[in-house]
Amino acid sequence: MVNTNIIIAGSQFSGFKNYATASFSVAYAGGNIAAGGYVGPLTASTPLNNTNAVSEVLVQYTGLETFYRLIPGNIVTDYPTAGAATYEIQSLAYFTGGILFVDSYIVNQTAGVVAIPPITFSCLGCLGVAPF
Amino acid sequence: MTVLNPFALNMVVPQYGIDQIIGITTGTLTTAAPTLISSPKTATANFAHGFGDSAYFAGIFTADGGVTYNDFGAMTPVISAGVPVFQTVGCNATCDATNLTITASSYYNFAAGTGTAATVTYKVYLLAKNTMSQPLAPLPTAEVLQYNSAFNYQKIFMKGTTNLTVGSGASGSVNILHNLGYIPKIRAFRIDAATPTILQPLANGFVSDPQAHITSTLLTFAADETGGGGINLNTNIEWRIYLDG
After folding, report:
1. What is the largest CA-CA distance in chain A?
2. Same topology between domain B21-127 and domain B155-242
3. Which residues are CB-contacts of B37 (< 8 A; sequence separation ≥ 6)?
4. What region, left, alpha or beta, does residue B51 occupy, with left being phi > 0 and alpha being psi -120 to 50 degrees?
5. Least buried of A18, B89, B95, B216, by fewest C-beta within 10 Å?
6. Is B87 helix (H, G, I), strand (E, B) or coil?
C-alpha cells in the first residue's frame, strides 16, 4: 500500500528529473498584414536533446502581454478576443533532431488591413528525464 | 540541524514532494493513409494500467523511426509547401480508471494533396495524481532508485484542483497565487464535467481550449469562449506548481 502524498524512500517510484533548460526568442518588428494574410513562421529555436525526455515549453508574447503561456504542442489565441478578433497568434512547439523549435504565426482575422505591434516571442524550454 | 555524530545514520528529509512515476508503457501504432474526406486516420491502443483510478501522464512519440521524438500534443508542421500545414502526424492520450488510451493520428496534407500512413512509436509515463485511490500497485520501471542526488528532481511547491466554468459567448479565468518571484514549472490536466471519468491534457490547439498563463506570482487558467467555436466549458483542472524555474 502506498500513500501517494508522501515520498517513499524505496524502489518502484521515480521522479521527473530536470536536466536542461533554455531561454530563446525571436523578434517581430511589427507591421501591417493585408486581408487574408499572415506572417510566419516566426521561428525561435535552441539546441535541446529530448531523447527519453519530456519537454515543457512556455512562450511570452512580449509587447502584447507580460505572462507566459504553456504550449501543450500548439496554442491558438485571438486578440482581443475570439468574438472580436482582429488577429490570431498560433504557436507550435516541436523538435526536429536535437533542436526545439517554437514557430509562431500571426494571422489577420478581418476583411481589412491590420496593424500588428512589435512582438518578441520569448520562449522557455525545459527537459525532464523519464525512466522510459 | 547540527550533526553531533557523523557516524550515526542521518536521513535526508525532503521539504517538498516530487512526482511519483507509477508506470511506463511503450508501443507502436500504424494508421491508414488519410484522404481528403477521411482525414485524420487514427489508430488507438489501450494500456490497462490496473490502478483503479486515472493517473497523470506524459508521453513522447516518434514518426520517423526514432530520429526525432516529440511530446504528445505536438505536430511537426510542413512549411515548405507555401501554405503551412499545421496538422501532420500526432499522438496523444487520455486516462481513465481502467486504461490509458493512446491515439496516433495522421492528417491529410491539404497543401500538397497527399495522405500517407504513419507508424508511430510512443513512450508514456504515468504519475500518481494529487489525490488517488489507494492502495495503489505501481508498475515496475527500469529505475531502481526513487531519488538520486545527481539529478534535480522537480519539487512540488503547490498542488490542487480548480474549477474553470466559462459559458459560451464569454471569457473567464481563475488565479492561483504562488508568489515564487520567478516563472515556475507547472503541470496541468483537465477533467471535464461532461466526461468526469476521463483525465486529458489541458489543450488540443483550439482557441476555445483552456490555457495556462504563468507569471512570477500567479498561475492563471483562462478560456476564451467568445468565438464561433465557443463552448460551455466546465472543467476541473488538476495542477501542480513546482519549485523549479
Report:
1. 63
2. yes
3. none
4. alpha
5. B216
6. coil
* Closest chain A residue to the Cα of B24, Cα to Cα: A132
Res A4 pLDDT > 90:
no
Q: What is the ipTM of this complex?
A: 0.90
Contact A81 B73 (CB under 8 A): no
What is residue B90's three-state secondary structure? strand
| B78-101 tens-digit pLDDT | 887 577 888 899 999 999 999 999
Whether A73 sits inside 8 A of B205 (CB atoms) is yes
| CATH code for residues B155-242 | 2.60.40
What are the domain boundaries of chain B? 21-127, 155-242
Strands A38-47 and A87-96: unpaired
List of chain B residues whose C-beta atoms are within 8 Å of the C-beta of residue A129: 151
Q: What is the rounded distance in angstroms from the CA atom of residue B200 to the CA atom of residue B190? A: 6
- Please check whether residue B107 is in contact with residue B39, taking contact to mean a CB–CB distance below 8 angstroms: yes
Give yes or no for a contact between B14 and B149, defined as CB atoms under 8 angstroms apart.
no
Contacts with B201 (C-beta within 8 Å, 6 or more apart), sequence order: A72, B72, B73, B92, B93, B189, B190
**Which numeric CATH code is attached to B21-127?**
2.60.40
Residue among B141, B212, B225 whose CB faces A70 most closely: B212
- How far A93 CA lies from chain B's nearest CA (Å)? 6
Measure the CA–CA gap between B93 and B100, rounded to whole angstroms.
Answer: 7
For residue range B134-148, what is the model confidence (pLDDT) as tens digits? 777 778 766 655 566
Report the candidate in B223, B221, B224 with the shortest Cα–Cα distance to residue B237. B221
Which has the closest alpha carbon to B27: B46, B50, B42, B49?
B46
Reported as a pLDDT band with limits 50, 70 and 90, residue B162 is very high
What do you get for the CA distance between the two ends of chain B, in Å? 27
Cβ-defined contact of A130 to B24 (cutoff 8 Å): yes
Which residues of A, range 20-39, sit inside 8 Å of B by Cβ?
Answer: none
CB within 8 Å: A124 and B183: yes
- Smallest CA–CA distance from B137 into chain A, residue: A1
